[in-house]
Known about the structure:
Chain A is built from ten helices and twelve strands. Chain A is of the alpha/beta class and 352 residues long. The model of chain B is unreliable at 1-18 (pLDDT under 50).
Amino acid sequence: xxxxxxxxxxxxxxxxxxxxxxxxxxxxxxxxxxxxxxxxxxxxxxxxxxxxxxxxxxxxxxxxxxxxxxxxxxxxxxxxxxxxxxxxxxxxxxxxxxxxxxxxxxxxxxxxxxxxxxxxxxxxxxxxxxxxxxxxxxxxxxxxxxxxxxxxxxxxxxxxxxxxxxxxxxxxxxxxxxxxxxxxxxxxxxxxxxxxxxxxxxxxxxxxxxxxxxxxxxxxxxxxxxxxxxxxxxxxxxxxxxxxxxxxxxxxxxxxxxxxxxxxxxxxxxxxxxxxxxxxxxxxxxxxxxxxxxxxxxxxxxxxxxxxxxxxxxxxxxxxxxxxxxxxxxxxxxxxxxxxxxxxxxxxxxxx
Amino acid sequence: xxxxxxxxxxxxxxxxxxxxxxxxxxxxxxxxxxxxxxxxxxxxxxxxxxxxxxxxxxxxxxxxxxxxxxxxxxxxxxxxxxxxxxxxxxxxxxxxxxxxxxxxxxxxxxxxxxxxxxxxxxxxxxxxxxxxxxxxxxxxxxxxxxxxxxxxxxxxxxxxxxxxxxxxxxxxxxxxxxxxxxxxxxxxxxxxxxxxxxxxxxxxxxxxxxxxxxxxxxxxxxxxxxxxxxxxxxxxxxxxxxxxxxxxxxxxxxxxxxxxxxxxxxxxxxxxxxxxxxxxxxxxxxxxxxxxxxxxxxxxxxxxxxxxxxxxxxxxxxxxxxxxxxxxxxxxxxxxxxxxxxxxxxxxxxxxx
Lengths: 352, 353
């Protein structure tokens, strides 16, 4: 790896013992407008008050089903979508209210990789130009130096530098995703948000990209916010995992605890629903959730999950449980664990 | 679900097929696409069979020909550019490739049905779901529109759609993804077909909904005795629903085995690679904090325009030798019911994934 590619970023100073990213009570409500006057008739509560942090070199996995707000959360953290309320802090500095020019140094710090490698690369730009564009925009390198940097990036993500002149359609899906990763790495970011970065890839290619992401993380001490719906993939790449349901985080802990001892009924059902690629595994009765995820336009009162929860009792229908730290490092939003952790979930102590 | 036509046909066919013969058998099927850049051999000599009431899993990555095989069974390959150039598709002993188009129309949706991956694009957006389900019923079973609509409501109840009486008058966009897939299943099963071809039926769905749909398919299979071909790239789904598995790579069958054997003793390097490359949620329950590297299959699937000579997996295979570069390996039984197309299958058998 050449020195040219990876350098420190002096603009943003690190403070000790402060997480790289701290998100507090982040909300994004999209207004629904109707009629000739475009009056706001309601809101889509896409992200409805989430808080989490990510340390340097750490991966936080964000899982949930479609429509739970996980992608919106990722884009709002980057301020690609303006948050409705809440705060985003990078190394202790609140960036929520920063204007475009003050955001610039932070933009270098935070990059994103998208799901669809077909629509996230400009088809009229060569692969080399795509990867080099951030260097031009941030006036970091030009001319020969830029070419060298781009070549080094290509090499690092497993593409041949002579392919810089090719256009996106000449690459396979996996290679395009590598171009997306090279583009994200170009500015030596500290945080990369991956929005379903391997979901569109075949399993054998998916393994290559996951391995590459883990290698890059270890090499450059990158932090990842890894957004995906595939629990097995998230489990593999993450250190900690947050589970989202209808705009809220319902459980968050280190991955080992999450898989061994899920405390939220939704997490439990989600884990139970994943098919295990081993025909010998005879698991207990699978928990099959009834119905669909309710609309985020009109989320159910009380706990959002009560309409599908097998353990719901009266209080769940009126009273929304807050996200609480029920054990050190283990956060969950469920009335079952109000006083103490109640396990197994199947015999809810609070159900009267 | 008595079907007068069906009973007559069964009697006619009774002489030709016995109950323990496969209900569907593909023999050396070749489906090619003719493009300006040359011939694409999407399916190149694939054989497999499906027993009565059985679930056969067909697994492979994009472009391996698993879906084209399925479309060939129903003779739904657009011609041009595609054409079934050789082989047989025996359904109850009769070759479907010799049937006329109008005979095929009697078979599609009636004897053999299909569910597709994308419920939104495979349902007609301007017709109510009741209309779409009853279309097949009026066509194949000769019921009146009103009777067919009643049957449609009954089918919606069978696939556990709540308020079926009301839902039957709704349009596809008013339903969620999982509901639409239930409607697709209701439609596919409305004429009580003997074979159901399911092409990635749960791929577009969330896991909790996927669990509901797989559960439903197995429940209905038990109830109706339908034989299912489950086409998917998801080895987890295969492990849960299939009895026997066919693994495809670049238009060819590379391995076939009972599901337990395939996962326990995969013998083709591609199958081994596939099993090694999936992140395993069950692995974490062991001791490690688990961020081991996944096993990679280097390189990528060859372009069907420029296939390597010899074994098609050779450029990516860690075990490749000169023999692999010169000749395609034959499919051989390495154990009863376990077929592998690899020159080194004997050596690799039982080495674990």
